[in-house]
Design brief:
about 325 residues, about 10% helix, mainly beta, globular, disordered N terminus, 8-stranded parallel β-sheet
Length: about 325
């Protein structure tokens, strides 16, 4: 990897007036932090989301509200208190949490934090569950949990959640939502980042954990610092630009099926997955890259059409 540095000469540096520095600091703070909306279903305050005491009680409503003022340079943050959240309080299996442009959603809070760094997703379990019907009966679960579309022209982030209990196993038809999985991408969102998440106990026809088969090759889904485990059927099914960094993928059925799009796997481990990792490709599709990855008790298959276009390496 080549890194280019630009050296600026001292003669180019100018000292700003104090009043201009103050304005820059003020706006810089706003850009780096953005407005925070708190979510706690048990809150009884004003409901404006400005504090834990006045938290909003519905996650999707908080996301929708944040999207009304979030911008590329001043994204909104959603802080979600520990607990279990369902995409709907009805039996409509097609409803999922819809991610929005420039809205960053964080889990792992106990409801007292004043800084993002104070949260603890390991201790404060924040669960997005598709078990909307009879608890423990997967035949009436949601088709998907998180849904991202072309409306995301910049970036959206989901960080610190358990994503679980999606099921399309008893579906014989093919509604669009069937392909969503725990994280479903449709169209061409610019960038969707899933970070510090546990994606497990999902089952779907195409991508129980992650599905991008209704997405175009434009746009990018990035999964980082996460665990993907105990998912059934095709766990990760991708046809768009897909990136996986520092992810453990284990005890699943099909670990990853890449049909098209530019797939990059970095510093990730695939262990004890039944049908392994498959790269399917054609000459017209972008190449794939695999760097510093471990495949243990997980078959790795690259078809003849894809083989010339896959790069394997130990260093970036």
């Amino acid at each position: 990897m080549t890194v280019n540095f630009t050296l600026y000469r001292p003669s180019r540096i100018r000292i700003l007036p104090q009043w201009l520095c103050a304005i820059a600091l003020l706006f810089g703070f706003a850009v780096s932090h953005g407005q925070v909306i708190h979510v706690d279903p048990a809150a009884t305050g004003a409901g404006d989301g400005a504090s834990w005491g006045n938290a909003q009680t519905d996650l999707q409503s908080a996301i929708d509200f944040a999207a009304t003022f979030a911008t590329q340079f001043n994204p909104a943050q959603i802080w979600v208190k520990a607990g279990t959240y369902y995409p709907t309080n009805t039996n409509n299996r097609s409803i999922a949490f819809e991610l929005k442009n420039n809205v960053y959603v964080y889990g792992g809070f106990n409801g007292t934090e004043t800084q993002l760094s104070q949260r603890d997703p390991v201790t404060n379990l924040t669960i997005l569950s598709g078990d909307i019907g009879v608890l423990g009966d997967d035949t009436d679960n949601s088709y998907g949990l998180l849904y991202a579309s072309s409306g995301i022209v910049h970036t959206t982030i989901v960080d610190g959640f358990h994503l679980q209990d999606v099921s399309t196993i008893n579906e014989t038809s093919s509604p669009a939502a069937v392909t969503y999985g725990a994280v479903g991408v449709q169209g061409s969102p610019n960038e969707v980042i899933v970070n510090n998440c546990w994606i497990h106990n999902n089952e779907a026809l195409f991508g129980s954990a992650i599905s991008t088969i209704q997405a175009t090759s434009v746009g990018k889904l990035s999964v980082r610092n996460s665990r993907i485990y105990d998912n059934k059927l095709a766990t990760i099914w991708t046809t768009q630009t897909f990136e996986m960094i520092n992810v453990l993928v284990y005890d699943n059925a099909t670990a990853l099926l890449r049909q098209a799009g530019n797939t990059t796997l970095i510093n990730s481990t695939f262990h004890n997955n039944t049908t392994g990792v498959t790269f399917q490709n054609q000459a017209s599709n972008p190449p794939g890259q695999v760097y510093n990855c471990i495949f243990s008790q997980t078959p790795l298959s690259v078809d003849l059409a894809a083989q010339p276009f896959i790069t394997f390496g130990t260093n970036l």
